[in-house]
Amino acid sequence: MKKAPPATLVIFGATGDLTRRLLVPAVTNLCTDGLLGKDFTILGIGRSDGDDEMLRASLDKFATEGDCWRDLRKRIAYLQGDFTADRVFDDVAKALGDRSAVFYLATPAQFFGAIVEKLAAKGLMAEAGSRFRRVAIEKPFGHDLASAKALDARILALLPESQIYRLDHFLGKETVQNILVARFANQWFEAVWNNRYIDHVQITAAETVEVGSRGSFYDATGALRDMVPNHLFQLLAMIAMEPPNSFDADAIRDEKAKVLRAIRKPTAVCAVRGQYGKGRVGSRNVPAYRKVPDVATDSRTETYVALKLEVDTWRWAGVPFYLRTGKALAARDTEIVVTFKAVPYALFRDCPIDRLPANRLIFQLQPDESIVLDMLVKKPGPVIKTAGTTLDFTYADHFKLSGRTGYETLLYDMMTGDQTLFQRAEQIEAGWAAVQPILDDWVKDKGRLESYAPGSAGPAGADALLERDGRFWHRIGQ
Ligand SMILES: NC(=O)C1=CN([C@@H]2O[C@H](COP(=O)(O)OP(=O)(O)OC[C@H]3O[C@@H](n4cnc5c(N)ncnc54)[C@H](OP(=O)(O)O)[C@@H]3O)[C@@H](O)[C@H]2O)C=CC1
Ligand SMILES: O=C1O[C@H](COP(=O)(O)O)[C@@H](O)[C@H](O)[C@H]1O
């Protein structure tokens, strides 16, 4: 891989959590991988008072220690100012001169539109010769379909799509990218990847963490908006997309957008929402969600959501996709479980076998990245008896992944101009369009919000959602 071209990463929100915990370790990893040149610099912008050394020192403990960080930290500068003031943008222009830049909006979402407008108005987005100017926009991109469309319209009135990098950090995760490789680089996948062989798909993003210090953001957002139209739909799209005709960014994004547009509008009965009460996750005491600072004491915001969705395409007709995500659950577990249809039973009718469990293919994204295929084999002995076993691939057994945040690939791609792992406007809008009927329903019908115990697998209604189809969730943490 070649080094990223010389550029400045301009981080709006450099004193925030995302910069510290995820961007800085990723930049250090890229440097250690030899993918950043000496001419890579960072210009951080925040509201807090301070100078270059204040920012560097605040990042020290989050960076991977070593020569790379020691050298890189000297190339970090800080600009104090309010994003709403013109002065900040004049100072950025002065600091950048003619350099290429990626403007990373690691800011609260209400600033996204206004910052892009100021960047454009000040001529900061103008490209010339080999000098590029790109803007990376964090999530949440909009609050619903109407606001996402409005934000897109605002930004696209000023910039071409080629300068816009809408982030979904799940796309930086190795296993997520590996879904594409597994599906399209292995012949046997495609042969069984359809409604003839697949019974249903489960997509889970379970977290043990509670809402904690993010009460103000979370209470206005909820689990559905926070995780589904973005992260979980990216996973769904990777599983359900048709083969692209190349690995070109637009070819892949076209296919993913088609899948998201094909999600049948869900009805109220296909959604379950829950909110955690008081309890324990492992040995940790967890206060009820309504006691979290900045959360309304009568809040009806969901901290858990489960959905049953259908993808109306030739390939997936009749295959349900069950999605669930929540906070304060029993285990951290992000996975995709593809359950195959049972084999015709006749062959085993004379054997002492009660039932043949279906084969499952599990893409485990977190905590440990792996791909596991459940299969049945014969138990040794004179009578035919089956035993469940697995074919496993665990990333850590073959590759070194530790300390990666997933942002490495995304940052490198922004600097090299590869938009494959970023979302185009219509993908984002298709995601919101698919969940909008549920959001509308929840506004109208205030009645259904189940409570669940911290440390559990979520509300009982989520189990019922599958049980009525004769199916069960894969156990969280298993
Ligand atoms: N944190 C995470 O794990 C993730 C975050 N994101 C997204 O990234 C974005 C940033 O999140 P996060 O870092 O957690 O947020 P924080 O609240 O921790 O940081 C916000 C940053 O914006 C700055 N800021 C806020 N208002 C102004 C203003 N008016 N003028 C100048 N600076 C201002 C803050 O400066 P100061 O602190 O100096 O006041 C701070 O640097 C959000 O859109 C979030 O949804 C996405 C995925 C994961
Ligand atoms: O975007 C978000 O993602 C995190 C989960 O990401 P992960 O990489 O840690 O699995 C989630 O906790 C957060 O609420 C959400 O805003």
Automatic annotation (TrEMBL):
One of its GO terms (biological process) is pentose-phosphate shunt, oxidative branch. One of its GO terms (molecular function) is glucose-6-phosphate dehydrogenase activity. Residues 10-178 form the Glucose-6-phosphate dehydrogenase NAD-binding domain. Keywords: Carbohydrate metabolism, Glucose metabolism, NADP, Oxidoreductase. Pfam families: G6PD_C, G6PD_N. NADP(+) binds at residues 13-20, 47, 82-83, 139. Residues 180-474 form the Glucose-6-phosphate dehydrogenase C-terminal domain. Substrate binds at residues 169, 173, 207, 226, 327. The active site is at residue 231. The keyword Transferase does not apply. GO terms for cellular component: cytosol. Its EC number is 1.1.1.49. It comes from the Bacteria. It catalyses: D-glucose 6-phosphate + NADP(+) = 6-phospho-D-glucono-1,5-lactone + NADPH + H(+). InterPro entries: G6P_DH, G6P_DH_AS, G6P_DH_C, G6P_DH_NAD-bd, NAD(P)-bd_dom_sf. Pathway: Carbohydrate degradation; pentose phosphate pathway; D-ribulose 5-phosphate from D-glucose 6-phosphate (oxidative stage): step 1/3. PANTHER family: GLUCOSE-6-PHOSPHATE 1-DEHYDROGENASE (PTHR23429:SF0), GLUCOSE-6-PHOSPHATE 1-DEHYDROGENASE G6PD (PTHR23429). Catalyzes the oxidation of glucose 6-phosphate to 6-phosphogluconolactone. Belongs to the glucose-6-phosphate dehydrogenase family. This is Glucose-6-phosphate 1-dehydrogenase.
